[in-house]
Each structure stands twice: as structure tokens, then as C-alpha cells.
């Protein structure tokens, strides 16, 4: 007679993993430890020192001194504000446009495969190539954008008022494919029967989306929004190629600021403190965001 599986009671702790289970997850765990946990721990260690560039430079433990200086660094605080504006704007626009595109590509249209391929094309282009391509689009004399608008000599990336919006546009264009693919996958979990029943009851497209599609898509939307926000806030290559943080620091994201402190001025300890501060703030913001989103999903 076969024995039934014992059901874990509520409040009872989970059993400890067996040795063979640890061996199975070891190939995935080792790269995470080597490429993520170890560099993070090393960076936290640098953040409490005065480490500088040079073989002869001595390193001393300084405790929270770097963080004290960082709290009063107006340039870093301004770059952090710019980073938040950039991350929120790019993430929101990416999601809104990708959602509309995913809903469109989810319909039974002719040549849908071609439309999906074209929509994913920016995903196949390296970030540096995207930056170079858009620099040509924004070129003041030979740029396509100025030709379309009938302008001459307008340097969008060097304009104090338009540099950040111009870079945001590139970020949205480059990041839309990933969000679109994720939302397309989420749309497959929407029950067709409910959509058909709502249509038979006389519900219009907007009503069906609000009552049927969005509730099923909300968990996916929360996850992809959180991941996009992390990715966008930590952006480096795209903005570095486009503007290198200019003009006058108007597009200097926190990652660019930390890069300059470390590799231009040789202040490795101070740059590591910037990274630790950004990680802590982002962790708090994401914890609050995900808590509210998951609470809304459960309700």
C-alpha cells in the first residue's frame, strides 16, 4: 500500500534542503556568488575606505566618512535627482507604449509575424550602436530629425532644455522590445472565454480591457515595471555614448557620476560609497513599490 505524502501544516517550518538538492542548484548558484555577491561585498568594503588610484596609494579604513561627505555633495544629489527623473520617465513611457503595442500585436492581423519582428528589432542592436545611430539622428547639420522639422543647426543633445528629453526618447525606443515581449507573454494568460463572454454581454473594448485583461496582466506589469526601473536607473552605456553626461551635467546620471569619480579622478572609495548609497535607496523604493503592487493584486 502506497503511503500518501505528508502535508505541511500551517506554521510548520519547511524541511531543510537535501544534499542532492544543493548539488542541483550549485551550477546556477556559483555564477551568482562569483559575479554578483562577491563584487557587491567588495564594493561595500571599498565604500568604508579612502581607496584611491595608484599602486603606492595607501588605503585606510574611514568608516562612514564617505557617506557623510556624500550626503552634502550637491553634485551627486543633483545627479541622483536626474537619475530618478530619467528612470521614472523612461519606465512609464516604455510601459505605456509597450502595452499598446502588445495589445495590437496580440490581435489576429495580417503579416503579424512581420510586425512582431520589426517591433523587436531595437532589441537586436547593441547599446553602443543605438547611441551612435541616434547621435546621427540628432546631428545639428545632417540629422534626420532637423530635416523633418525644417531646422538647421539645432543640436538637441547640447541644448540645456532638450538634452534630457532627447535622451529619454532614445531610452524608451531602445527598451520597448523587452517590455513588449513580456506583456505579450502575459496576454497569453488572459482567458479568452472571459473576453468572449464580456463581448456577448455588450462590453466594449475598453470595458473588456479594464475588467478582464488588466486584472490578469497586473502581476506581470508589476514585475516588468520594477525590473525596468532598476535597469533604467542603472543605465550607463547609452547615455555615455549620447552625451557623456552633458551639457553642463544635465544628463549626468548617478552611474556616470560614480564612473567619473572612480576612473577619471581615481577616488575608488568615494565612488564605491555612491554605489552603496544608490543600491540602498533603490532597494527601499522597490520594496515599497512591490509591496503596494502585490497588495493591490491580492485585493
Describe the structure.
By secondary structure, this protein is mainly alpha-helical. Helices cover 68% and strands 0% of the residues. The chain is built from twelve helices and no strands. Helix 9 packs antiparallel against helix 12. The longest helix has 32 residues. It is globular.
Low-confidence spans: none
Question: Share of helix among residues?
Answer: 55-70%
Main beta-sheet annotation? none
User: What is the CA-based Rg, rounded?
Assistant: 24 Å
Helix/strand order, N-terminal first: HHHHHHHHHHHH
Whole-number average pLDDT?
85
Number of helices: 12
The outline comes out as globular
Strand portion: under 5%
Instruction: State the total count of DSSP E strands.
Output: 0
| SS class | mainly alpha
Task: Determine the N-to-C terminus distance.
Answer: 43 Å
Fill in the keyword field for this structure:
299 residues
Question: Care to give the gist of this entry?
Answer:
The chain is built from 12 helices and no strands. It is mainly α and 299 residues long.
List the helices and strands and how they pair.
Elements: H1 19-47, H2 65-71, H3 74-105, H4 112-119, H5 127-137, H6 144-149, H7 163-187, H8 192-200, H9 205-233, H10 237-242, H11 254-264, H12 268-298
Helix pairs in contact: 1-12, 3-7, 3-9, 7-9, 8-9, 9-12, 11-12
